[in-house]
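Board notes (copied after class):
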Amino acid sequence: MENKRAGSTEKAKVHEKPEGKITLSVIKADVGGYPGHVSVHPHLSTRAKKHLEDEKAKGFLIDYHVSSCGDDLELIMTHRHGIDSEMVHKLAWEVFLSCTDVAKGLKLYGAGQDMLADSFSGNVKGMGPGVAEMEFDERKSEPVIILMADKTAPSAWNLPLYKMFADPFNTAGLVIDKSMTDGFIFEVHDVKANKKIEFSCPEEIYALLAFIGSTSKYVIKSIRRKEDGLVGAVSSTQRLSFIAGKYVGKDDPVAIVRCQSGLPAVGEVLEAFTTPWIVSGWMRGSHNGPLMPVSQREANPTRFDGPPRVVALGFQVCNGHLHGPVDMFDDPSFDHVRDEANRMGHFLRKHGPFEPHRLPADDLEYTTMPEIMKKLEHRFEKIA
């Protein structure tokens, strides 16, 4: 496995401690598939690395890593500019625009499809790219997992995040770690009404589940420890179809999860993916399918443009520098999950255009299906 990163330093080097809080930003976009919706062309990754290496050399970024999951280009950056920084978001926007030019030159499919605006307006949220950011004071040891998914929606994290931070059958620390037994606060977004609500768990678990089980409407945005407000996880909640008002591609979410020392252990975070949960997305964003945990080299969905994939990259953050990544699902202990996902996916594919493989009508509102309905609308007659 190749862990070497453009701009990385020697493994044994100790970095000077930067002043102030560290911000970890993960910003992704689909700027062109290779071929179709399968993968990211190496030229796009090379262009992105060049941009971010220049900014690291200037001192604007502390560190970075360029990655991909399926056809999504992922920018992982550490800096001291805080969340929602106009400068950081503008940098990501410029990187994606530059990579879009490369994609167009290569005639890649859907070049720039996540770039929904002609010019930057201060923040990439609402402009197409997905964003997950958190700001924190580094602990004595700071392990983080970056989750990246392809061919699915932001709500794909709802069930895994619940398992990590609220289910003692998944996370033993909720029972035996005194720094976790008070529980966590879940911030949930209503992505259709643009509202948010918080749930205090474990006492409000039932209420939480009543909402996050409706995955087409409610998405977990962040989780923080009730004891002291320490942030444990954040996710992207951008829904491309809601932004554009029509089908423009899958949302393909990202998430950041901090681990250990009063938060779920690394193994507890990964344990949440030992079942291939059914998520929406897959082909044309219109089908349900199993979320398959894979190594990065296997994050190239080809069967019916799927099934949906999730990659987990593990980093040790030290004074803002990213040591890693470790490809966390590149492990034979997840082979049985992948086998199960293939069986589930094969069974669902047998349904063809029928539910439950195809999404319900309400969830197809922002796909290309309404165009078909409109074309035939005049042929409907009232039943006597």
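Comment from the instructor: The chain has a mean pLDDT of 91. The radius of gyration is 20 Å.
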